[in-house]
Amino acid sequence: MLESSVENFDVAVVGGGVAGSAAAIALRNGGFSVAIIERGEYNQKRIAEVLPPDVKEPLIALGIWDDFLSLGCKPVMSRASSWGSPHLDISDYLFNAYGPAWVIVRPVFDRFLATGASERGARLFLNTRITACLREGRQCWQMTLRQGLGERTIKAAFVIIATGRSSSVMRRGPKPRTSYDRLIGVTATIARSSAHSTNDARPMIEAVPEGWWYSVGLPDETISLALMTDADIAGAEVRRYRNRGALLAALLRSAPHTFERLSGGLDVLIHANVVSANTYFNLSSDDDGVISIGDAVSAIDPLAGQGSYVALESSTSIAATIAAYNRGSPTALEEHSHRQRANFERLMAERIFYYGIERRWPGFPFWSRRQTGGWFASPRA
User: Which residues contact 87 (CB under 8 A, 6 or more apart)?
Assistant: First the structure.
């Protein structure tokens, strides 16, 4: 069925994840008409994340803090790490002015943000793909959307690219991306052992020769687990152990704290999967009314634990950027790009600092690449 009517919006947001939906909320708060175009419907399995206490600030700025508190996310008052030494160190949030950190299940959190945007008047298109995109005049984009068997056309003065790591229909020619590593996560969802405290939801990071382990307790009493390593290292180990599950079970023995947390076993509920987690920066600038945000611009090593928080924080300013541009500021979009670049450089400095702390395995590729050159110092285009 072909729909011939054309809907007009001030802004079309391509991608309804954290960055896209948060930007849509900010835009609606600023009085803009908004369409969100999302390829899925928030049912894809994702590794659990922990939002730092500081996330309270952007959620308040978006006007959704009280709604977030009613979402049922699990608060955690501490984090554990074995990094730079074999000992497990505990850092708590007891005296943090913002309160606890929060364990989030990404599909639930993404849906929460998209619903918040929709409730504020954004038009949400789920299970929708862009099949054509044409520029009309200096600042008007026409998009053909396919949803099931139907098609519709929308127009927007601005397009926000929030497609994450994936490619976008808005790309015009090759996109210059600088990659700093080939980090991946071998992930699994694990049944919580009866010997494990159901109150221990805190995130735990443990460095090992092949990379580092991440685990966190979820509200449904399971544990989200990931081995973070480089793609070539994981490939060699999978060939050695025959499959990802066997790889996790074998290498877990070199991580005594994570091994103890899982009571020495892997009762895998969801089969091991591989997700990209590399650090990169896209060098293209914002122009022609097209603005990139979130992982469409850059992604940082998850060791910093800043992914969703950075996406939320940066998205809160997008309405002010577009409003300034509409008022005649010729540098508004350029300043937005500069802020994103400066934020990336700050996070890169933190990344260098944290990896510099761990000196136990200088001869192992994962660590030598990050401490003596290799991918870390020589970006891969």
Answer: none
| Domains defined for the chain, CATH in brackets | 2-48+105-178+280-345 (3.50.50.60), 182-276 (3.30.9.100)
Handedness of CA 262, 243, 224, 186 (dihedral sign): positive
Q: Say how many Å lie between the first and final Cα of the chain, rounded.
A: 43
Residue 218: CB atoms within 10 A of its CB come to 17
Report the DSSP beta bridge partners of residue 248: none
| Residue whose C-alpha is closest to residue 321's, from 333, 313, 311, 338 | 333
Residue 230, CB-side half-sphere exposure with 13 Å CA sphere: 18
Contacts of 69 (CB under 8 A, 6+ apart): none
State how far the Cα of 252 lies from the Cα of 259, in Å rounded to an integer: 6
pLDDT on residue 18: 94
CA dihedral 32, 53, 306, 229 (to 10 degrees): -140
Q: From the CB of residue 134, how many other CB atoms can be counted at a distance below 10 Å?
A: 11
Among 312, 264, 339, 296, which residue's Cα sits nearest to residue 56? 312
**What's the pLDDT score for residue 167?**
56
Q: Which residues have C-beta within 8 Å of that of residue 261, sequence separation ≥ 6?
A: 196, 200, 204, 215, 223
Distance CA 114, CA 17 (A): 8
Burial class (CB in 10 A: 0-12, 13-18, 19+), 306: buried
Q: Which residues pair with 223 in a beta bridge?
A: 190, 217
Cα–Cα distance measured from residue 376 to residue 381, given in angstroms and rounded to the nearest whole number: 12
The confidence score (pLDDT) of residue 217 equals: 87
Rounded to a whole number of angstroms, the CA Rg of the chain reads 22
> What DSSP letter does each residue of 1-65 carry, written as one string?
-EEEEEEEEEEEEE--SHHHHHHHHHHHHTT--EEEE-SS-S------EEE-GGGHHHHHHHT-H
| C-alpha to C-alpha distance for 155 and 9, rounded to whole angstroms | 6
Report which secondary-structure segment, H or E, holds 147. strand 141-147
Taking 70 as the pLDDT cut, the residues of the chain under it are: 1-4, 167-176, 193-199, 264, 267-270, 283-287, 304-305, 373-381
What CA–CA distance (Å, rounded) separates 151 from 74? 40
